[in-house]
Write a structure and sequence with these properties.
With about 750 residues, this protein is mostly beta strands. About 5% of the residues lie in helices and about 35% in strands. The protein contains 4 helices and 53 strands. About 50% of the residues are buried.
Length: about 750
């Protein structure tokens, strides 16, 4: 190990058995390669004393080639001195390229949204990852020593996240459903398996951390499953459950041979830890404030510690010498002899709310033969090793295990509905030949859209994902089959993507996902939440781009609306980027477009050569199509087309009537303005015949109109029966719109 300054060594406080570490006045000049340490210990009389001095180890050592720092005599008591020199240079005398220590604790701090590593020998700690406190709440943690990666769950962002033990950024491994709360996590590094408990859906699931294939192992008899730990030699999992009947259970990796170890005297068994050497299970209960242990068969139950009413245990870890636990009412890691006794702080009291904790002292030796190591045990998807060199093959959700016990079969058919072509529409899916259903738009983005378009025979790139039932809601009789779909982008089928349990969703059909597949000459409307108005985007030369508003009028709008499947009559154009400018990096494909209005495609009209334009995106054109040909709206009684008395026609313009002002407010005004091609924002309602009363010969067609504000037509809002009203024309409503 080389030093950047080999001649400069640390001067450390040097005392043994002192009651107050701050009272130490003796010093010691360390040798090259040594660092300062401080260690607490409990004497036979029960008092806590401190030893400190030099030690042959590097503090804050990492294996990423980063400069690291030890604790100097003047900085030894400062918690921020655990940071690397590249952060604050708190000890310039020791900045060296270190190696990862072989014994450490990993824990998460939800109050500070951080992941830490603490050296078991020196009790010094280093920040691995600092997370965004607004959107994160890390809870469970475990370690993959094969690749030196740390995994943790985030119950706020609904994620399972991976980071390097030395700190080098994070990777999302799994996006969980919005109803999930992954409170427990355990890894078998050699089998490449990650098990987690979900108190939101009451399941225990397993994930292959290399392939990301996932399935549920146990989905019955669980009520708030919390902590989980693994016996990687016997291929068993142990977990706690703090539901209505608290208990601790055990089963094989595949959920077989399941049995209850203890179900009495428990309240909130938050934590569990396995000592494979002594064949003992430890657990911590936040309700009883006790730490207990028992043999792996449930016998010989003993209480080791009682923290009293001030304790709220959460995480628990064990090594060859001691127990380490977290307590929500303590700002430090706590330690306790495995035989029981008095708990004392371990390391600095420098943290917020500590959740789960994991102890690593090296790979477990003699884990036995693993039937899943070679060729995934012959399994198509997930191989679960069992004791005795056997294994069970399981399939990712949506697939069925075949009679050979190895192969997985499954099929997903997709179709697009609600659009006017096979290349765009609401996504509907049939799994394994079953009934058709929709996909919720939660987490639905370009990667998912590209896979769906690829399944339909279109190119895998350039697909547009649309949410909020862009192409209309499916019938209420159709189920929502998939939710929280999360794809990498290389899958051959959406079944291969991560998703919520099949049929499990918190969505309604107003969240049906839609796609627009990229094909030459395809158009869609952007900049709004609906498909009948927006900025015109066209796919040409392998890219989406916009159209300049030069010469673009009603005839050109007719052609675009016709391409989108809407009636041509009543189509309107809106220039000057009325629906917002296009992305600066995308081209303006067409300029000086001139149509007769009857062309089948905008490309059939006269226009400049593709991608030749003198426009900027401030001139991007948009269109307003008639989503409901039979319902029309106009504003009268004003000289401005932005305001007036609202009149509607429900017979395609043959007759016109007014709308009563009862319940009519900003949301309703926004819908009317949107129908006119104006902005919903800034719309205002004007009651009491503000723009004059309608003619006595006119009917008051709508009363008690109530809108959410997102409807594309006033007829989509709640209202009285058309033509039924208790109003007079003195209550005719008007609106004021903004461009």
């Amino acid at each position: 190990m080389a030093f950047m300054r080999s001649a400069d060594c640390l001067v450390c406080s040097h005392c043994t058995g002192v009651a107050d570490p701050n009272a130490c006045r003796s010093t010691q000049l360390c040798s090259p390669g040594q660092s300062c340490f401080q260690r607490s210990r409990t004497t036979q009389s029960g008092t806590v004393t401190y030893d400190m001095g030099c030690m042959d180890t590097q503090i804050c050592a990492v294996n990423l080639g980063l400069p690291i720092v030890g604790r100097s005599i003047t900085k030894r008591e400062k918690s921020d001195c655990q940071q690397c020199c590249s952060v604050d240079n708190c000890n310039e005398n020791l900045c060296t390229l270190g190696s990862l220590t072989q014994s450490f604790l990993l824990f998460v701090d939800s109050r500070n949204s951080a992941v830490f590593r603490m050296d078991l020998a020196t009790q010094s700690y280093v920040l691995i990852e600092s997370l965004n406190p607004v959107v994160t709440n890390p809870v469970a943690i475990d370690y993959d020593y094969v690749h030196q990666n740390v995994y943790w769950t985030d119950v706020l962002s609904k994620l399972i996240v991976r980071g390097h033990v030395g700190g080098a950024g994070t990777t999302i491994i799994e996006s969980l459903s919005s109803s999930s709360t992954a409170d427990g996590l355990a890894i078998d590094p050699e089998s490449r398996l990650l098990f987690y408990t979900d108190t939101g859906t009451d399941v225990i699931a397993v994930l292959n951390i290399d392939t990301r294939k996932e399935t549920v192992i146990i989905d019955s008899g669980l009520d708030q499953p919390r902590a989980i730990t693994l016996d990687v030699k016997q291929r068993k999992m142990y977990w706690t459950d703090w539901g209505s009947h608290p208990k601790i259970e055990v089963s094989n990796y595949d959920g077989t041979n399941r049995r209850i170890l203890v179900d009495s005297g428990l309240q909130l068994p938050n934590a569990v830890a396995l000592d494979p050497t002594d064949a003992v299970i430890y657990w911590a209960d936040a309700g009883t404030a006790q730490i207990e242990k028992m043999n792996l068969d449930g016998s010989n139950r003993l209480t080791l510690s009682n923290g009293g009413s001030t304790s709220h245990y959460f995480g628990l870890a064990v090594d060859d010498h001691a127990l380490y636990y977290t307590d929500w009412n303590r700002n430090s890691v706590m330690t306790l002899p495995k035989s029981g006794g008095t708990a004392v702080p371990f390391g600095k009291p420098a943290f917020g709310r500590l959740n789960d904790i994991h102890a690593y002292t090296g790979p477990q030796s003699n884990t036995g033969n693993n039937a899943c190591v070679d060729g995934n045990g012959g399994c198509d998807h997930i191989c679960l090793p069992l004791a005795g060199n056997s294994r069970t093959c399981v399939c990712q959700q949506g697939y069925t295990l075949q009679t050979n016990g190895k192969s997985c079969s499954g099929s997903a058919s997709v179709r697009l509905t609600g659009g006017n072509s096979t290349s765009k529409g609401r996504v509907e899916v049939s799994l394994n030949g079953g009934s058709w259903g929709t996909i919720c738009d939660d987490r639905f983005g370009p990667e998912e859209a590209n896979i769906i378009c690829s399944m339909l025979g279109f190119q895998r790139t350039g697909a547009i994902a649309k949410d909020k039932s862009y192409f209309g809601q499916a019938q209420s009789s159709l189920p929502i089959v998939l939710d929280d779909l999360d794809c990498i982008g290389t899958e051959g089928s959406i079944l291969e993507c991560s998703h919520s349990p099949l049929g499990s969703t918190d969505c309604s059909h107003n969240e049906d996902a839609s796609v627009i597949c990229a094909s030459e000459g395809q158009v869609y409307l952007s900049g709004t939440d609906n498909n009948y108005q927006g900025r015109v985007e066209v796919f040409l030369n392998g890219r989406w781009g916009t159209i300049c508003d030069d010469s673009f009028g009603q005839n050109e709008a007719k052609v675009v609306c016709g391409m989108l499947g809407f009636p041509r009559n009543g189509s309107l154009s809106r220039g000057a980027s009325a629906f917002g400018p296009g992305v600066e990096t995308e081209p303006i494909h067409l300029d000086n477009v001139q149509c007769a209005g009857t062309e089948a495609s905008i490309l059939d009209c006269q226009h400049n050569r593709v991608d030749v334009s003198d426009c900027g995106h401030s001139e991007d054109v948009g269109v307003l199509c008639q989503a409901d040909a039979s319902v029309k709206v106009r504003l009268t009684g004003s000289s401005s087309n932005l305001e007036g008395r609202v009149e509607i026609s429900v017979d395609n313009g043959a007759t016109w009537g007014t709308v009563c002002d009862d319940n009519f407010g900003t949301a309703e005004a926004g819908v009317v303005c949107a129908m006119m091609g104006f902005s919903r924002t800034g719309a205002a309602a004007r009651g009491s015949a503000y723009y004059g009363a309608g003619s006595s010969s006119q009917n008051i067609l709508l009363d008690d109109v109530t809108c959410t504000g997102s409807e594309y037509s006033i007829m989509q809002c709640q209202h009285s029966v058309v033509g039924t009203s208790n109003c007079a024309h003195s209550e005719d409503v008007g609106v004021t719109c903004q461009r």
